[in-house]
Amino acid sequence: YKQRRFNLFREESEGYSKLISELNQEFDENRSAASVMDIIKSLIGCFNLDPNRVLDVILESFETRLSKYRLFIQLLRSYMPNSTIISEVLGYKFRHFAENNEVTPFSLYQITALLLKYGVINLTDIYVWLSPLDSTITENWHKSIAEANEFVRKMNVILTNKDSDPVEPEQYNPEEGYMSNQKFGLCEALLKVGDWENSLTIINQLPEQCVLVHELIAKALADIVHVSIDRLYSTKCFNSKQKKSRLYDDKKLLKEIQANSYNDLLKHAFPMTKTLGPSLRFDTILINKLLRIMKKILTEMNVDNLNLPASGSDDEILYNEIINVLDSALMKRVSKDNVKPIGRLIGKLSHCASGILFDYILLQIQIYDNLIGPVVDSFKYLTNLSFDMLGYCIVESLTKGDRDRFRDDGTSLSMWLQSLASFCGSIYKKYNIELSGLLQYVANQLKSQKSLDLLILKEVVQKMAGVESAEEFTNEQLNAMSGGELLRGEAGYFSQVRNTKKSSQRLKDALASNDLAVALCLLMAQQKHCVIYRETAQNHLKLVGKLYDQCQDTLVQFGTFLGSSYSQKYDQLRKSDPNSKKLTSSQKLQKYLEATQAIINPIVESVRPLYSLKIWEDISPQFLVTFWSLSMYDLQVPVDTYKKEIDKLSLLSSSKDVPNS
């Protein structure tokens, strides 16, 4: 038979009924697409059915029987070799739901994804039928980013009118509009059937992270990464008992993407992970798997940032790819502009893999010192347990003995140690982290006659107490240093460290609780001689001079801190009084004198046997101890410097009071 035209008047509805019954009956495993095709041809010829409407019925049946996708894929290939026509029929279905503002059923996405995966249709043919337009998606994405930034800004606004109630800003929801976006739905379906190439095309077509910011799509891609690394993870780490997805039933997919060696990760697993980027947060199990595999690789390669693999080798390619994966997932996005969102992400990750996470962050800080500020600010969401782990990781990073602490020329300390020391000062000042471990580590290093880690103590005291260790003072600064604590802070240092009261108290308490104050002073005093004769016997003379100066500067800095803020005995006597909060000035003075006597009397008794009785006839031991205990502030008052700083502040205050013309 031969048919040229079809219309509603010649078609018989009985034919469609029989067609629907035939396509929706139970097919056994031996049923072939060719036999079904013969029946369809007979029905078309017998009942004058429109081939395009028959195609639509086949697609509708396919949509309800996704488990028989192999049969329907073969049937569609033999029935309609022209992929454009199939795309048009599917396109009209998508357009119908878009024009009527109806939610597109996910089954339609699934059959489209399966047809794309097995090459029945092309992505370019069906993509033009999907809504909304790429330009609309891009515009909405930029708008949502602006709304998110505005939400963060409103959360930080300080309410100045105490009588008005705070207005809760409308929370930004990234999932809004997801169900009406057919391109997002198709991308999710493609990933769920394991079609990485076509889904990547859609992802690259739209703005970065615009697609993967949605949890359903990110989890679908994470499932494919699970499939890719599962065999290697079970072999190298330990056997995973995670519930497996349907992707494991696709033997062709498993053969294509599953990694059997470390180098196989470069083909699919690592590119997929880099595409996921920060959206890895949706699957913490995958994060753990990837981190364990990467750690295993680096351990077996025996490399780190200072012991890199051979240039041009496969190990170098693999190492660089691991660093790129970690950067794309977290650290490359850390900046002063996105501290809060990245901080929340770090806070979440610290619950499941804190050790590996902090090791990597510390590694990046040692390489890129400009990350210190943003990273310190992003740690605001860490818990106390996470801070404890961070303190442990810092000490562990310092104790690694396979890294050179000197530069290649041997005349100065390495950059990684300087960056880590600066980070320690900043992080311990900003957050209430246990200091005992770090201080004890420095003391142990000094006991071992190693003074390099004094740089850690120097930075901690400078940041937490505001006492600067300056190598070169001007005359004005020298005069200011003979003044009180306030004058020294205003005019005695090059940089003015503010808000050190609480952090200084924490440092003092840590030293007192571990009896490290006097011990560190004695160890630093002894270390000055060890630097010259023992520690640096084989080192460059310039390095010896720097280490000696560092030891002396740190000792003076530490002594200045103790002298200005260490009043433990006075605090004990004051707090022992039941009315400690109601003491008058004279009572406080009396307590201070008692504390002074309690401290000086043992020293007086220890000094008395050092000189003959004839000496004590002219000068008393109390006077000798008191004289040598006095500071420059007690001997001389820098009146001119005080007057100069007061005039400077007065001038600054008056200039602010003058209204703008």
UniProtKB/TrEMBL annotation:
It is found in: Nucleus. Residues 616-651 form the THO complex subunitTHOC2 C-terminal domain. GO terms for cellular component: THO complex part of transcription export complex. One of its GO terms (molecular function) is mRNA binding. Residues 346-421 form the THO complex subunitTHOC2 N-terminal domain. Coiled coil: none annotated. The keyword Cell cycle does not apply. Residues 1-245 form the THO complex subunit 2 N-terminal domain. Keywords: Nucleus. The keyword Signal does not apply. GO terms for biological process: mRNA export from nucleus; mRNA processing. InterPro entries: Tho2 (IPR040007), THO_THOC2_C (IPR021418), THO_THOC2_N (IPR021726), THOC2_N (IPR032302). It holds the Pfam family Thoc2. Its main location: nucleus. Belongs to the THOC2 family. Component of the THO subcomplex, which is composed of THOC1, THOC2, THOC3, THOC5, THOC6 and THOC7. The THO subcomplex interacts with DDX39B to form the THO-DDX39B complex which multimerizes into a 28-subunit tetrameric assembly. Component of the transcription/export (TREX) complex at least composed of ALYREF/THOC4, DDX39B, SARNP/CIP29, CHTOP and the THO subcomplex; in the complex interacts with THOC1, THOC3, THOC5, THOC7 and DDX39B. TREX seems to have a dynamic structure involving ATP-dependent remodeling. Interacts with POLDIP3 and ZC3H11A. This is THO complex subunit 2. It comes from Megaselia scalaris (Humpbacked fly).
